[in-house]
């Protein structure tokens, strides 16, 4: 056990963090020690029974970070938080990687972050700019290091997740997918969170080939009617697409419990793609995984159909 390299997932109770931990536990537990960072141990209850170790820590509390990076940690997955101060928090994380000798911070970002066209993209553009600024910075030398070690960030620019559609289950169960994608306008890029978990896990286990790289993670591009058609075919539950306007969509996001700024930002991001932006981004999923990305229809059969069958 002591001879295995330690990989860190920070924070492990986020959607991307959980996906990465589950893939690590299922496929790489014999190769690495899996260290899961959460603010409170209760936040890791859903991971009970997996071959992991749980650490309580907070990036805003430097005194707690020594335990996170103990045992010569060289790679750490950072699930960028969904908070308005996420750029500042991520900068703190990058600084901690330098201080504790972590060569490879693996950081979740967003498609077209550099375009700064939406609030989400502006946040992630600031994060990526800081990673670029700090790239090549010498990191603290660890016991087993040979030669000069430098920071080599790995950026995962994720499309919106297929799993976001599960929030629309009530309408889908009644035969309608309500979404603000207009009529025959731009296509929504989205991706299976499970594929993101697989990619994150694979990189954590062997980060060196991926250092200083940015990957665009897209499953497929679809318009509203194509989403509904995929749901119908894969679940056996008839579904048609119904266009809604942006204010209605923002109110629906808020009704799910999202703060107003996040509901508005999510709606703005969908509008960005609907208005024909970001339509020609090449997906790097197959390059990293060696297999094509999961199709939305396959996700619907795997995760949406069981819910619909019970409703």
From TrEMBL:
Residues covered by the NmrA-like domain: 5-268
Superkingdom of the source species: Eukaryota
Cross-referenced InterPro entries: Ergot_Alk_Oxidoreductase (IPR051604), NAD(P)-bd_dom_sf (IPR036291), NmrA-like (IPR008030)
SUPFAM superfamilies (UniProt xref): NAD(P)-binding Rossmann-fold domains
Xref: Pfam families: NmrA
Protein name: NmrA-like domain-containing protein
Organism: Salpingoeca rosetta (strain ATCC 50818 / BSB-021)
Upper classification of the organism: Eukaryota, Choanoflagellata, Craspedida, Salpingoecidae, Salpingoeca
């Amino acid at each position: 056990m002591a001879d295995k390299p330690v990989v860190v997932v920070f924070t492990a109770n986020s959607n991307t963090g959980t996906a990465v931990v589950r893939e690590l536990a299922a496929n790489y537990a014999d190769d690495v020690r899996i260290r899961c960072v959460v603010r409170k141990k209760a936040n890791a209850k859903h991971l009970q029974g997996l071959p992991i170790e749980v650490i309580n820590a907070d990036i805003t509390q430097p005194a707690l970070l020594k335990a996170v990076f103990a045992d010569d940690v060289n790679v750490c997955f950072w699930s960028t938080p969904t908070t308005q101060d996420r750029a500042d928090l991520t900068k703190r994380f990058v600084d901690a990687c330098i201080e504790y000798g972590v060569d490879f911070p693996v950081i979740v970002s967003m498609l077209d972050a550099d375009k700064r066209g939406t609030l989400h993209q502006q946040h992630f553009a600031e994060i990526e700019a800081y990673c670029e600024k700090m790239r090549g910075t010498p990191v603290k030398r660890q016991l087993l290091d040979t030669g000069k070690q430098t920071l080599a960030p790995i950026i995962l620019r994720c499309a919106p997740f297929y799993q976001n559609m599960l929030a629309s289950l009530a309408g889908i169960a009644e035969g309608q997918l309500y979404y603000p994608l207009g009529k025959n306008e731009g296509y929504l890029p989205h991706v299976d969170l499970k594929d993101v978990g697989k990619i994150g896990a694979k990189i954590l286990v062997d980060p060196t080939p991926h250092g200083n790289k940015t990957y665009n993670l897209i499953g497929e591009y679809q318009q509203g009617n194509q989403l509904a058609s995929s749901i119908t075919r894969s679940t056996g539950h008839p579904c048609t697409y119904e266009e809604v306007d942006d204010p209605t969509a923002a109110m629906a996001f808020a009704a799910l419990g999202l703060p107003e700024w996040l509901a508005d930002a999510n709606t703005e991001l969908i509008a960005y793609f609907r208005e024909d932006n970001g339509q020609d981004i090449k997906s790097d999923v197959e390059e990293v995984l060696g297999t094509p990305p999961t199709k939305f229809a396959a996700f619907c059969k795997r995760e949406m159909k069981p819910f619909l069958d019970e409703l």
